[in-house]
Amino acid sequence: MQDQRGGFTLVELLVVIAIIGVLAGLGSQMMGYSIRKGNISAAESEIQRLILGVEAVQLDNGDYPPTSMEEEYGFSGNGLNSGNESMVAHLASRAKGRSYFDFTEEYLENLDTDSLDNDSAEQISWIFGDNQLREYVDPWGNPYVYMHNRDYGREFSVTCEGSPVMVSAGQSEKTATYFEPIRFQIWSAGPDGVHENGKGDDVSQW
Questions:
Q1: N or C, which terminus of the chain has less Cβ within 10 Å?
Q2: Within-domain flag for 84
Q3: Could you read off the pLDDT of 81-105 as tens digits, one per residue?
């Protein structure tokens, strides 16, 4: 209702302000949901691309990348993010005359600031121009977990939300068996940044 001067009353103005506030809140929630859904879709897409790359490595070399290059080849490392770093190194390797993955540069990080010695980096013959041991991270900035099937049952240290945490291969509660029992596992900690070994809101290949 307008007052005698043609304006709005104080009560009407407060009602309008309240309605605008509610609409703004709903818009903010919808935007947050849309961003979350978009990031999950992006992680799922990257995992599928990583799977194809790892499978191509297996075709050329007879096996999937090891979970730990330190254990497999005796390379120096700090034991953190070893599976992801091994996956990245093998996908970037040109030892067989090609590399296996088109890396999205914004997802390449070296969160634990480790590197290979020059001889080891030359042995891998990768596409990178230096010897940094890089990780490939998800849309939330955490490294994907990669694990070869022979290491299921073991625990590995990975960086998550800036701190090291222990993870192990995901298992099905219904069948009491490991997911992807004869291949490998790749997953992301998902939007909450908490690893549930490929379950819960983790984004995984299964």
A1: N
A2: yes
A3: 999 999 999 999 999 999 999 999 9
pLDDT tens-digit map of 110-154: 999 999 988 888 888 999 999 999 999 999 999 999 999 999 999
Measured between alpha carbons, how far is 165 from 186 in angstroms, rounded to an integer?
16
Q: Is residue 6 part of a domain?
A: no
DSSP code at position 190 = T
43: CB partners within 8 A, 6+ apart: 138, 139, 188, 190, 203
In a domain, 85, yes or no: yes
Q: Which two tokens stand for residue 206?
A: 């299964």
131 and 159 Cβ atoms separated by less than 8 Å = no
Contact, 26 vs 19, CB < 8 A?
no
**C-beta separation of 166 from 137 below 8 A:** no
Q: How many domains does the chain have?
A: 1
Q: What angle do CA 160, 176, 174 make, to 5 degrees?
A: 95
Tell me which residue range forms the domain holding 62: 47-204
Q: How far is CA 115 from CA 11, 155, 180, in A?
A: 66, 22, 30
Q: Do the Cβ atoms of 129 and 112 come closer than 8 Å?
A: no
Give the phi and the psi of residue 109 in degrees, each rounded to 5: -135, 165
Q: Tell me if 27 is assigned to some domain.
A: no
pTM, full prediction: 0.84
